[in-house]
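stage 2 :: seqdesign
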């Protein structure tokens, strides 16, 4: 298990045009939902390859873990307050529950800096609110891993979902 400090492997500024505002988001009315937002989006090119990889990973995790693994669960929540309040949905690629752990899994074709905000700033607080009795871990499953990708916090390269790491965990899986 290797821990990578983003300051050591910085190639470009940690946040480019998609920079986080740095503010702490306040979520309210958080709940699991059965209704799935639908889209007419048709993936092409690299996006299509990434979605095919995601489907393979989710199918294998589902076959291994059975009912302990839930693919693409929908979390509904509200942001803001008063008239500025908006209802939103978050859909992590997968949730794996075993023992005292809940693993929030996001699948990417290639390791990316965008995964930090997605997993650590959005999914982690939502799942912690929904599963307060369990410890929550965040896992990025990716086919290709580049340690030069800069993240705003520490991440651990791991080889197993059963051994907890620190911060965001990255599992390189050439499936």
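stage 2 :: out
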């Amino acid at each position: 298990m290797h821990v990578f400090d983003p300051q050591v492997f910085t190639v470009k500024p940690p946040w480019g045009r998609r920079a986080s505002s740095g503010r702490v988001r306040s979520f309210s009315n958080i709940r699991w939902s059965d209704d799935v937002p639908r889209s007419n989006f048709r993936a092409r090119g690299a996006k299509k390859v990434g979605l095919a990889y995601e489907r393979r990973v989710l199918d294998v995790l589902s076959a291994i873990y059975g009912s302990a693994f839930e693919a693409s669960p929908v979390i509904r929540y509200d942001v803001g307050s008063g008239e500025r309040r908006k209802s939103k949905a978050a859909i992590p690629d997968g949730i794996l529950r075993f023992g005292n752990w809940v693993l929030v899994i996001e699948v990417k074709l290639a390791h990316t800096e965008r995964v930090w905000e997605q997993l650590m700033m959005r999914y982690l607080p939502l799942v912690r609110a929904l599963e307060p009795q369990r410890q929550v871990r965040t896992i990025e499953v990716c086919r290709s891993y580049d340690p030069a990708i800069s993240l705003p916090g520490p991440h651990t390269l791991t080889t197993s979902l059963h051994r907890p790491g620190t911060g965001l965990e990255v599992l390189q899986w050439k499936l």
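stage 3 :: structure notes
- Confidence is low (pLDDT under 50) at residues 4-22.
- The CA atoms of residues 111 and 145 lie 5 Å apart.
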